[in-house]
Amino acid sequence: AQAVPLTRDLVGRLYPTRSADVRARVARVLLTRVYTEGTDVTQGQLMFQIDPAPLRAALNAKLADLAAAQATLTNNRIAAERARSVGAKGLISKADVDNANAAERTAAATVKQAQANVESAKINLGYADVTAPIAGRAGQQQVTEGALVGQSDATLLTTIEQIDPIYVYFNPS
C-alpha cells in the first residue's frame, strides 16, 4: 500500500495579476511604436512616441512669457523702491507709492502664474514619450503610426498584463 496523489483534469481560465492600459495623455500625432507586440516590457520603458514639436513650441512660448513677466517684475520692483524712497521724503503722494507697490505685487503674481504655465508645458512635453506604467507582457497596438491620438479623451494605445505570477480560475462541477 502507498499514498497516491489525487489528480483531476480541470479547465481553467488564466488572468493576469495586474493589467494596465497605456493611453495617450496629449492630443497629437503618434509618430512611432518602440516596443514589439507580445514582448515583455519593464516599468518605465519607452513604448510610443507622440509628436513633440507642438508641445516643445508651447513650452518655448511659456518660457518667453515667463521671461517677459520677470522683466516686468524687475522694472516694477525698481519703480516701487524708487517710489518708496521718494515717498518717505514726502515728494510724491501716498497714492503713487501705493500704486507702485500694487504694480510690484501684480507683477510678482504674474511671474508665479508664468512659472506654473511653464511647469504645465514641461509636463505635457513629457507626455510625448509614452512609457510602460507596469512591467509585464505588452499587447497589440490599438492605434497605428500617423493617427491623431488623445483628441477628445485618452486614446488606448495598448494594454500591459503582468503574468508572473498569474491567476487561474477553475469552475469545477
Strand content: 25-35%
Helix content: 25-40%
Which runs of at least 5 residues are low in confidence (pLDDT < 50)?
none
Strand order of the largest sheet: 1-8-6-3
Q: Give the overall shape.
A: elongated
Report the C-alpha radius of gyration, rounded: 29 Å
Straight-line N-to-C gap: 30 Å
The main β sheet shows up as: 4 strands, antiparallel
Total strands = 8
Q: H/E series, N to C?
A: EEEEHHEEEE
Summing up helix and strand content along with how strands pair, one would put the structural category as: alpha+beta
Q: Number of helical runs?
A: 2
Rounded average pLDDT? 94
Q: Can you describe what's shown?
A:
With 173 residues, the protein is an alpha+beta fold. It is built from two helices and eight strands, in the order E-E-E-E-H-H-E-E-E-E. The strands form two sheets. It has a four-stranded antiparallel sheet, with no helix packed on it. Helix 1 (53-88) packs antiparallel against helix 2 (94-126). The longest helix has 36 residues, at 53-88. The protein is elongated and about 115 Å long. The protein starts with 11 loop residues before the first strand and ends with a strand.
